[in-house]
Amino acid sequence: MVLERSSTSFQLDEHGRVVGMARESSSSTSHHLVEELMVLANHVVAERLVEGAATTGKAAGEASVPRALLRCHPDTLPEVKKALLEVLPEELKHSAPMDEPLPALLQWSVAQGFRQSPTRSGV
Q1: Cβ distance 103 to 46 under 8 Å?
Q2: Degrees (nearest 5) of the Cα angle 24, 29, 32?
Q3: What are phi and psi of 7, to 5 degrees?
Q4: Cβ atoms < 10 Å from Cβ of 55
Q5: pLDDT tens digits for 65-100?
Q6: Between the CA of residue 70 and those of 50, 74, 94, what are the distances in Å?
Q7: Integer Cα distance of 5 and 15 in angstroms
Q8: Is 18:10 a contact under the CB 8 Å cutoff?
Q9: What residue spans of the chain are helical by DSSP H?
Q10: Cα–chain-centroid distance for residue 116?
């Protein structure tokens, strides 16, 4: 897996003072995988908020926050799923549900008992 960093460029005025900033987005596989993990984390938090509302006797959707916003992302790029498949143990690779969205694929891998150790990731 290749890790890339995004770069930042600054716009300067005629006196050399910073008047703007632009961050170039990375389109690497690792960047997309991190995005998908963040989306999964958001879904888990949303579920916990709804569960918390149910346990406090409030109506579903009335958790401890008055409102929440969930941003929907496009489907996972195939190469991101392929990168995940590469870190799975051989015995799980053939049965991985690759047609599922990445959050479901990640949940499946956890349910199978897969936990990636720092030495396996190479990161």
Answers
A1: no
A2: 70
A3: -115, 155
A4: 8
A5: 556 566 666 777 778 777 777 777 777 777 888 777
A6: 13, 13, 33
A7: 29
A8: yes
A9: 29-55, 78-87, 90-93, 102-111, 118-121
A10: 16
Rounded-to-integer distance, Cα 71 and Cα 94, Å: 32
d(CA 101, CA 105): 6
Structure tokens at 50: 């709804």
Is residue 4 within 8 Å of residue 33, measured between CB atoms?
no
Q: What are phi and psi of 98, to 5 degrees?
A: -70, -15
Which residue is associated with the tokens 């703007």? 20
Q: What are phi and psi of 6, to 5 degrees?
A: -75, 160
SS3 for 55-85, per residue?
A: HCCCCCCCCCCCCCCCCCCCCCCHHHHHHHH
pLDDT of residue 89: 76
pLDDT-wise least confident of 6-10, 67-71, 107-111: 67-71
